Amino acid sequence: MRILVIDDNRLLATILADHLVARGHTVVAAFDGHMAEVFCERDQFDLLVIDMVLPKLDGVDLLARLREKYDQVRAIIVTGFPELAAEESARLAELNVVGVLHKPFSFSDVDEMMEQLDR
Q: pLDDT tens for residues 41-89?
């Protein structure tokens, strides 16, 4: 699966990308919304893993913009703010978010979410 991980925390994005690569996926990491848009223009992805809180353009707004051009790509939202995810739940459903990964998370949480996508 081709995956784009979008998180302004470069260490987290890199560790998550490395973990997904070790699981056999092709992964690119972007550290802001603009970089993510550029990567999406250049490549086609099967899955977007987007941090909910990003500088300049938050993750939900970024996903809404990407959905205008790439409506079939699946998306997982990552957040350290469960109350924000709850507030945005209707919008996340409208944007067809397939899962929410709550920080802090473990690799087993990531693996379980990826297994759910394969079903």
A: 999 999 999 999 999 999 999 999 999 999 899 999 999 999 999 999 9
Q: Is the whole-model pTM more than 0.90? A: yes
Q: What is the DSSP letter of 91?
A: H
> What CATH number should be reported for the domain holding residue 61?
3.40.50.2300
Alpha helices in the chain (DSSP H): 10-22, 33-42, 59-69, 82-87, 89-94, 107-118
CA 8 to chain centroid, in Å, comes to 12
Count the Cβ atoms, other than its own, within 10 Å of residue 13: 21
Tokens matching residue 70: 């790439």
Q: Which of 4, 15, 6 has its CA nearest to residue 105?
A: 15
Residue of 41, 11, 42, 44 whose CA lies nearest to 29: 11
**C-alpha span between 68 and 83 (Å, rounded):** 26
3-state secondary structure of 16: helix
Cα separation, 118 vs 113, in Å, equals 9
- What is the maximum alpha-carbon separation in the chain? 35
- Give the total number of structural domains in the chain: 1
